[in-house]
Amino acid sequence: MLLPSPDPQPSSLRPACLDKPDLAGCVRSRATATEVRYREGYARLERRARDAWGRQVTIFDVATYVSAYAINLQPRSYRQYRAHVLQQARDLFDRGELDEAEAELISIALDGGAGSLPETDLPVRCGHRRAKSLSKEEWRRLIEGAERIDSRVARQLAMVLLLGPVVGIRPYEWPSVRREGAALVVDCAKFSVANGRGVAETRSLTLPTAFQTPEFLRRLERVLSEMRGDVEAAGGDVSVTMACLARLLRQIRGKRSTVTLRTLRHQYRANAALRERDAAWIAAAMGHASADSQQSYGRKRRGWRSMPLAAPEQELVARVRLGASTMSKIRCGAPLTRREALGRSHHHCVGR
Q1: Which CATH number fits domain 136-321: 3.20.20, 1.10.530, 1.10.443, 3.30.1560?
Q2: What DSSP letter does each residue of 334-346 carry, written as one string?
Q3: When comparing pLDDT for 322 and 163, which is higher?
Q4: How far apart are CA 34 and CA 40, in angstroms?
Q5: Does the reported pTM lie above 0.70?
Q6: How far is CA 111 from CA 64, 231, 234, 244, in A?
Q7: What CA–CA distance (Å, rounded) separates 236 from 238?
Q8: Tens of pLDDT, residues 25-55
């Protein structure tokens, strides 16, 4: 539970290390609503750190938690996390529960000096050094490796590998997938009304024609039913099923490969970008509420041009918010896709 905000001390009485700029070195003043948002963000970080360690945590633990992940975060994300922790530090300082030396220690940790804090056993899990694309040859090799194994888990893995670059579903969303005709209905894992994440509670993806044969659909239905049964047998814990798939994938891929189940989602984005699908279309297919969210996924130059793609409903595409990057292009009159840019260039040359 969030503590009530204390009477703020004048910034001149606080240590300078607690008044670092929030974004890109230019935002120092904070509205009351912003401070409330930062306190809520800190509460979420505290819960995540508590879950990671399995015990109660202090602000020093949370600072260590953020520092451990900093190397793998986008600069903007890191500054936001740092702002959340510093807001809590300011509140503690204003209540007299934090002195200047402790505030400086927290600041050092957030700037990369985590060694100054007590040793921890934080299990860092992130996408750092994990593949964000794979070649078609490796993709086929992984599918063949899974198909050679006669087991329930191998059948599921082969299907996830086969459809991953086609549908772009998050690994943890697979057990929720239901087939309705030639479409897959997926529960969006990150949908939240409170924070505006996720384009909808569920999204529908129409499979390409090549994947609509009766034989394939029966095979798909069998695998989806097995996944749901495995999750129910584990008491509703999806992580158990996903851990089995991930473990088998590691065995098949070998130690030199860094391909994970999430790599398939990155590859879907790369394939869609190469096929000149616009940002809103890709975001709707991947379950994002903002058109800019998918830009951190697989790069266009890594896409496969000949790969068919599952298509989202147009209703979902219309509900996607235009992100800051897209809005900036619209205001400047810049082309939104490479095809549009080439079209303008051709028109300009013909006009000459």
Answers
A1: 1.10.443
A2: --SSHHHHHHHHH
A3: 163
A4: 10
A5: no
A6: 10, 41, 41, 37
A7: 6
A8: 444 567 788 888 889 889 989 998 888 888 8
